[in-house]
Amino acid sequence: MLPNVLRTNAADHVPVLADEVLELLSVQPGETVVDGTFGAGGHSRLLLEDLRSDGKLVAIDRDPTVRPYFDRLKASVRGVQLRFLRGDYAIVLRQLASNGVRADVVLLDLGLSSMQVDRPERGFSYATDAPLDMRMDTSDESSAADVLASWSERELATIFRSFGEERYARQIARGIVRRRKEAPIERTGELVDVVRASIPTPARFGEGHPAKRVFQALRIEVNHELESLEAGLPAAFEMLRPGGRLAVISFHSLEDRIAKRFLRDRVRGCTCPPELPVCVCGREPEARLLTTKPVRPSAHEVELNPRAASARLRVAVKMDNA
Question: pTM higher than 0.85, yes or no?
Answer without folding.
Answer: yes
